[in-house]
Amino acid sequence: MTYRLGVDVGGTFTDILLIDEDTGRTFRAKTASTPEDQSIGVLRGIERACTAAGVGPSSIGEVFHGTTVATNAILEGKGARVGLVTTEGFRQVLQIARSFVPGGLAGWIIWPKPEPLAALEDTVEVRGRIGSDGSVVTELDEDDVRAKLRRLKDRGVEALSISLINSYANPDHEQRVAALAAEILPDISVSRSSAVLPELREYERTITTVANAAVQPQVARYVANLESQLRESGVEGRLCILRSDGGLVSAKVAADNPVNLLLSGPAGGVTGATWVAEQAGYPDFLTFDMGGTSTDVALVQSLTPRVGRETTVGDLKVRATSVDVRTVGAGGGSIAHVPPLTQALRVGPQSAGAAPGPAAYAAGGTQPTVTDANVVLGYLPADLAGGEITLDREAARAAVKPIADATGLASVEAAAAGIVDIVNENMFGALRLVSIQQGFDPRDFALVAFGGAGPLHANALGKLTGAWPVIIPPSPGVLCAYGDATTNLRDEAVRTLVRRFGELTDHSLRDLLTDLAAKARATLTDQAVPEDEQEVVYSVDLRYHGQGFEIPVPVDLASFDGDGGGLDALRQAFDAEHQRLFSFVLDTEQELVTARATAHGPKPEVAASELAAGDSDPTPALRTHAQIWVEGAEVSAAIYDRALLRAGNVVPGPAIVTEMDSTTLILPGHAATVHPSGSLLIRPAHEER
């Protein structure tokens, strides 16, 4: 009997999910995150999950980990001191950057421009030039390179990034600079743009390479430490890390290319939600992952998450493939406050985090949070995380009372309801970004809600979006870990080739994609994935000639049979997507900018669990009744134990369904049907079926 382990480290909790590959049975553990060393919380959780399963660590065949180490290094400004080597004349590439300024009208007046990840004084220019066609315009001056590298060594840089003009077309100069760096700076990591992002656009390629260098030492230390700790604890299985696009890579590949991990945590949630929605029979859905610090949302069509070519973390935007996730600073730990000037209630983005946490945790926190508001309203049980945290209701009321006083609301309950309403609107705004703003009607989608706090707010978000049913997965608090454990190994190969369609043939594009596929397959083969179990998907970034941006379009390689049918299909697909996004098409010739091949390993064969059948009556799972505050008044709500619910049970609202890692609120006028896969499907009562 073998087990696979999913690990997700969040800002507040570390989630562990141990899966029996033969039966699909799962064992969960949830522990407080340990920001000072994430591996401490991970190992503590693994020990608890193994104890619950009655197995030893040696039974774990594979460990799949979604991590926020790279993300936190960027957000907290704790990346390494990076030296940057550029081509002569391009020293200020990061300072010039792009002209876009976030914010509304006149936002530039108050917007503080973020400091580049590589300081100007740590940036050097070297003589040598590659042309856009890959030809050598000026030979590399190696004596000059050595002198500049010694200067960076004297400045005490901790990591080195190399980004030379047009290196995507010819990496020779970058490779030679890296070889010289190995002699002069032998103890620091080196990131080459031609390896990190071999694509067009100098600034994007440079900032992505510098970001990779900034987080590489910290990620490499963390991965090495975790691997060592796992071995010492008896876990012999291999360690894989989740990428931002929802695929897995080996620990070594992750440590070499950490810029691809910046959205590792949220990607795990989308992957897990896809697994759950497939079991429930809903291929089109929105995801809603509410944790302690933030909320992540995404859109999935036909069980395929929308993937973007950019990753944004805080003020940093890099070119790295990632699931199209939008994040808002709205979580269980988000702090409510009333600014003196406006006297208007606000929630977030500041968070109480894991330490000290909400006031209800009785760990020293005194500021009112969303969790405190839910406690005041009666939505949360006395214990969280399987008893690890005991809630202090009086402390929660004391924290929320100043909000009631400052806003003039009649009661603490009214203030708590206001906090919940505002945070719901904040999260609704994020859902609009991935649906309505992208041309999708949320009413055409289901809504999969998870995370420790997601199921508490899911019914309300269903009302705001009109997305039904609202799907609450089994173990929603550890779904990100489930996603980590049920995805597959993945790698991609990319090449920039700016060509108008008139300059391409089916054969030339097919040959290019085939070459890229071989490169992507090689990485998986090195990770012991048999070639006959690998699958490759293709895409190209297209634009109209003269445009300054591209749109990714999937490629059906079978249509490239030599008679031009493949290029014709791409024209039509691009025009259709351009029409959907912008409501118009142009007569201008299409142009290919970048080609991409992504190799996938086989999905793990994890059996899906199925609940025992029952009738519509949920009474056997009823535990008690409690008074909760809903829609401006106290009402009596039934409290159910989710572990005792059976397939077919219908839970009418108002009700609360409790489990080890999360709590689900079902509002009046709604009901939840228990699906055989274990998910709760919440709909308005008149639609329940």
UniProtKB/TrEMBL annotation:
<dbReference type="InterPro" id="IPR045079">
    <property type="entry name" value="Oxoprolinase-like"/>
</dbReference>
<dbReference type="InterPro" id="IPR049517">
    <property type="entry name" value="ACX-like_C"/>
</dbReference>
<dbReference type="InterPro" id="IPR002821">
    <property type="entry name" value="Hydantoinase_A"/>
</dbReference>
<dbReference type="GO" id="GO:0005829">
    <property type="term" value="C:cytosol"/>
</dbReference>
<dbReference type="Pfam" id="PF19278">
    <property type="entry name" value="Hydant_A_C"/>
</dbReference>
<feature type="domain" description="Hydantoinase/oxoprolinase N-terminal">
    <location>
        <begin position="4"/>
        <end position="184"/>
    </location>
</feature>
<feature type="domain" description="Hydantoinase A/oxoprolinase">
    <location>
        <begin position="205"/>
        <end position="491"/>
    </location>
</feature>
<dbReference type="GO" id="GO:0006749">
    <property type="term" value="P:glutathione metabolic process"/>
</dbReference>
<dbReference type="InterPro" id="IPR008040">
    <property type="entry name" value="Hydant_A_N"/>
</dbReference>
<dbReference type="GO" id="GO:0017168">
    <property type="term" value="F:5-oxoprolinase (ATP-hydrolyzing) activity"/>
</dbReference>
<protein>
    <submittedName>
        <fullName>Hydantoinase/oxoprolinase family protein</fullName>
    </submittedName>
</protein>
<dbReference type="InterPro" id="IPR043129">
    <property type="entry name" value="ATPase_NBD"/>
</dbReference>
<feature type="domain" description="Acetophenone carboxylase-like C-terminal">
    <location>
        <begin position="508"/>
        <end position="673"/>
    </location>
</feature>
<dbReference type="Pfam" id="PF01968">
    <property type="entry name" value="Hydantoinase_A"/>
</dbReference>
<dbReference type="Pfam" id="PF05378">
    <property type="entry name" value="Hydant_A_N"/>
</dbReference>
